[in-house]
Amino acid sequence: MDKKRRIILKATMAGGTLAVAAGANLLTPGRVMAAWPAKAFAAKKMDAAMNVITGKDRPVSSNQIQVVAPDIAENGAVVSVKATTTLPNVESISIYVPVNAYPLSASYILSKQMKPSVSGRIKMAKTADIVAVVKSNGKLYTAKKGVKVTLGGCGG
Amino acid sequence: MERKMKIRAWDNGKNTSIKAIIFHPMETGLRKDKKTGKKIPGHYITEVNCEHNGKNLLTCLWGPGVSKNPFLAFDFDGAKKGDDVKISWVDNQGGKGGSTVKIS
User: Fold this and answer.
1) Are the C-beta atoms of A139 and A80 separated by less than 8 Å?
2) How far apart are CA B6 and CA B15, in angstroms?
3) Domain ranges in chain A?
4) Inter-chain contact B32–A102, Cβ cutoff 8 Å?
């Protein structure tokens, strides 16, 4: 995990806005009906999943995103999570759990009518961070929240 | 098989709130049947589309990491009481469903 995080960090610092265009069109509403990103959901590493959704671009940490989830989740099969942001022109919000068998949990594509906030429930294999990635004005931002899981929810 | 779902849509004074639950097993494909030891095939919703008066509001791309009987809540602008909100979904085994409610 630590190692992975460092790679992400490095890529963020080096890349910044690089390759925004590459992945930008992947999540355009209207095209999605035919384009459920199977590869992203089947990816077993967070990095690989992000490659499919966002290209090589890596998100920058932002304090304008809040990930609301319980500090302790007794049942990892049902963890409430709400991702909300004050960033402008939000195009998509994606939720990742890096330790899950498939790190990408859900990706939400928002129209202009939407308030930039979505709630849902996800599974968590074990204690970990929930990572939200928000695309705002074509750029990626991220925030996370640690959740302690007492009973894992992905079966085995 | 028809799957049940519940949607609530209401005017909260500032904008419109939606809460929905779709009753679906959301099987990951990783679990094993305790009796036979065989893997239970994955069965999960892949896409949920939410529309307001026929206009796309929100598209949810889901994977097996979403909980059983998925819950969805969000707010949006530009609607009034009596407008239609439609939520429809498809799963990875070709199953689908949906429901329409009026904003109250």
Assistant:
1) no
2) 20
3) 1-34, 37-149
4) no
- B42-94: pLDDT as tens digits: 999 999 999 999 999 999 999 999 999 999 999 999 999 999 999 999 999 99
Structure confidence at residue B75 (pLDDT): 96
Site of tokens 């109250």: B104
The CATH class of the B5-26+40-102 domain is: mainly beta
CA distance A63 to chain B (A): 21
Contacts of A115 in chain B (CB under 8 A): 15, 74-77
**Pairwise CB contact (< 8 Å): A106 & B75:** no
Domain ranges of chain B: 5-26+40-102
ipTM of the complex: 0.93
CB within 8 Å: B67 and A77 = yes
CA distance B24 to B93: 12
Alpha-carbon distances, residue A14 vs A7, A56, A61 (angstroms) = 10, 11, 14
pTM greater than 0.95 (yes/no): no
Fold of A37-149: Immunoglobulin-like (2.60.40)
Mutate to test the interface with A, among B68, B74, B77, B103 (most CBs of A within 10 A): B74
Beta-carbon separation of A36 and B47 below 8 A: yes
User: Which pLDDT tens digit goes with each residue over A84-125?
Assistant: 999 999 999 999 999 999 999 999 999 999 999 999 999 999
Burial class (CB in 10 A: 0-12, 13-18, 19+), A90: buried
